[in-house]
Design brief:
The longest helix is centred in the middle third of the chain and has 38 residues. The protein contains 11 helices and 8 strands. The N and C termini lie far apart (43 Å). β4 and β5 form a beta hairpin. Strands 1, 2, 3, 4, 5, 6, 7 and 8 form an 8-stranded mixed β-sheet that branches. Helices cover 53% and strands 14% of the residues. By secondary structure, it is α+β, with helices and mostly antiparallel strands.
Length: 388
């Protein structure tokens, strides 16, 4: 994949969003189908966005994930999250990749030929996705040691559609210290993978979220990411920053799209006297307030991404607050847009009703808003993020 500058990458995302994602967004939602065409277009041109240049990728980071996410989120939140999880998975694989992992995963990802995603959440863990119960054991094999995975994953975005899955586990064995969590990458064609039915929500209906059973699935030992026990490092140094930016960008896009929907309606809607609604001072005040909310959230998100890329002291509170703030902003902005547009916006054929359902998921997807607020406070007070 040819290296392109960030501005060009964002322009490509906007082009794909306008030409492919937006025309299909309503159907993706109504039919609750995985956005195959949109994902293919994004993968082909931007699939290697965060893959290092030495592996053929573009070498971009958190700011690119946020800005591309905003562009795609404006058109279709479901597609945006599906692609965002590919970017997060790519970043996790790349973080400590060896030669075999670069050749097997990163180079095909950079070429736009491989889709990856996360499989971290599990039933019963709630929002604490960093505490898996899936077990990983080393087993002898004539061709070399293998890893046996036993457990259940839930809410796997792109489930059954991706070419590989980043899976978190707890390592067990006679010589393994207790509580040692690890990350692996599992190929989609690994024998024994069992997919559950697709999960259907009232929003984000195209993300192909499914449960995954791993009944003693064996994978090559070189599929271990980093070293045994590195999972917590991956979660808080790679997964959380990239996931929070993918989410934040997507829901910033939803908020921006709702703002534009309201603005466009107000400039074209006329009263019986022939005046546009845009001349009403109350309407002007409401729209100005909405714009300020979206813009200050955008600046927080982009600043948080830049701070995190530099390793600055306010990276953690910035990243945590970005998703928390955008969850509030997206929900409030879509609600305000519905109020300004009125009955037309409340109809089932209005994009605002889809945006409202999609926006509500921003509070639900872990880490949930309350946890993020606590993380931000702990970071500011130099308190440990997790209980010992």
């Amino acid at each position: 994949m040819v290296r392109i500058e960030l501005g060009t990458a964002v322009s490509v995302a906007r082009e794909i969003s306008e030409e492919v994602l937006a025309p299909q967004a309503a159907a993706v939602d109504a039919e609750q189908r995985w956005p195959k065409e949109g994902m293919a277009a994004l993968l082909a041109r931007l699939g290697g966005l965060v893959v290092p240049e030495h592996s053929g990728g573009m070498g971009h980071g958190l700011l690119a994930v946020a800005q591309v996410g905003e562009a795609t989120g404006r058109a279709c939140a479901s597609t945006s999250i599906c692609f965002g999880m590919h970017l997060v998975g790519s970043a996790v694989i790349a973080a400590q990749a060896g030669t075999a992992q670069r050749e097997r995963y990163l180079e095909p990802i950079a070429a736009g030929e491989h889709l990856t995603t996360l499989a971290l959440s599990e039933p019963g863990t709630g929002g604490e996705f960093w505490l898996p119960q899936t077990r990983m054991e080393r087993v002898g094999h004539p061709g070399g040691d293998r890893l046996r995975l036993t457990g259940t994953k839930s809410f796997v975005t792109n489930g059954g559609r991706a070419d590989s899955y980043v899976v978190s586990t707890i390592a067990v064995g006679p010589e393994t210290p207790p509580g040692q969590f690890s990350c692996t990458v599992v190929d989609a064609d690994a024998p024994g993978l069992q997919w559950g039915p697709e999960w259907h929500g009232f929003g984000m209906r195209g993300n192909a979220s499914r449960g995954l059973e791993l009944p003693g699935v064996e994978i090559p030992a070189e599929c271990l990411l980093g070293r045994e026990g590195d999972e917590i490092w991956y979660v808080f140094n790679v997964v959380a920053p990239y996931f929070l930016m993918a989410m934040s960008g997507t829901y910033l896009g939803v908020a921006a799209a709702a703002l534009e929907e309201a603005r466009a309606h107000l400039t074209r809607r006329r009263t019986r006297a022939g005046h546009t609604l845009s001349g009403n001072p109350v309407v002007q005040h409401r729209l100005g307030t909405m714009w300020a909310r979206v813009e200050r959230t955008r600046r927080l998100i982009y600043q948080a991404a830049a701070e995190a890329e530099l390793g600055g002291p306010e990276a953690l509170p910035g990243l945590a607050s970005a998703k928390a703030e955008v969850a509030d902003a997206a929900e409030a902005t879509v609600n305000d847009a519905l109020t300004l547009v009125g009955g037309i916006g409340y109809g089932t054929d209005s994009p605002l009703q889809r945006m409202l359902r999609d926006a509500r998921a921003a509070h639900v997807m872990a880490p949930v808003t309350d946890v993020l607020r606590v993380w931000a406070g702990k970071a500011l007070l130099d308190e440990p993020l997790l209980e010992s």
